Amino acid sequence: MILTCDVGNTNIKTAVFRDDQIGEIYTFDKLDTLFSYLGKIHPENFAIASVVPSTTKSITDYLGSKFGVIPLIIRNDLKFNLRIDYDSSETLGIDRICSAEGAFKLFKNSTEFNSYTEKTYLITIDFGTATTINIIRYPGIFSGGLIAPGLKMMFNSLTQNTAQLPHVDEKDFKQMIGRDTKTSIASGVINSIVGMIEKTLKHLKENLGAGEIKIFITGGNAEKISPHLNIKYENQKALVLLGIKAIFDINR
């Protein structure tokens, strides 16, 4: 049994794997509740991907003192199933690597992999604190992507940095052309994200010769954006956790 742990800026997500089968998935907003859960399951193997170093240290210290477990911390210098073709690989976000690894693992295990060609692109879109788009080209090369503020960050930025704009969220979206200030802001934010995705897909098709584009979405805001997406996608809530497991396996 292995427990994988995804430490984000907002929450901590975990998943239990028994062999290659994913089991219980939980989300924690506090370390105390995570530690209480760990005390119940007594993990023998542990792999963690984190964008919050202080939280990583707290979890690592707890595992060592409580269970004598040394976790595998996902770093940029580990082995990956994907080849990283990125000009600043040392600054590539671990969460981006893991979501891409998770998507590639799922794709390799699908029947679609039988028709994998140079015209096939895999895309992961993580709707988290930031919205990130990651591109995987044939035959399994992470080749970059896009990073933008996330849904809540965009809304909060407008509210906090302007004196007279009201508080708005995705529920205020009504139509493309807003008819009042709230619906105008909601349309601007939603369509900024959707437009970025649509333009990325258009670029892949028109400039890079993409034929089949397999899209995986994930993240806490995925359910809020997905109704506005006019594309075919697979929603995988545990995408990063699946990627952590794939990286653990190749570095075991």
Description:
This protein has 252 residues and is an alpha/beta fold. The chain folds into two domains: 2-73, 2-Layer Sandwich (Nucleotidyltransferase, domain 5); 83-237, Nucleotidyltransferase, domain 5 (2-Layer Sandwich), CATH 3.30.420. The chain is 38% helix and 25% strand. It has seven helices and eleven strands. It has a six-stranded mixed beta sheet with strand order 6-9-8-7-10-11, with helices on both faces. Helix 3 crosses helix 7. The longest helix is centred in the last third of the chain and has 27 residues, at 181-207. The chain is globular, with a radius of gyration of 19 Å. The two termini are 13 Å apart. The mean pLDDT is 95.
Give the secondary structure arrangement, pairings included.
Layout: E1 2-7, E2 12-18, E3 21-28, H1 31-41, E4 45-50, H2 53-67, E5 72-73, E6 83-84, H3 94-108, E7 121-127, E8 130-137, E9 141-149, H4 151-160, H5 181-207, E10 213-218, H6 222-225, E11 234-235, H7 239-251
Parallel strand pairs: 1-4, 4-5, 6-9, 7-10, 10-11
Antiparallel strand pairs: 1-2, 2-3, 7-8, 8-9
Helix pairs in contact: 3-7, 4-5
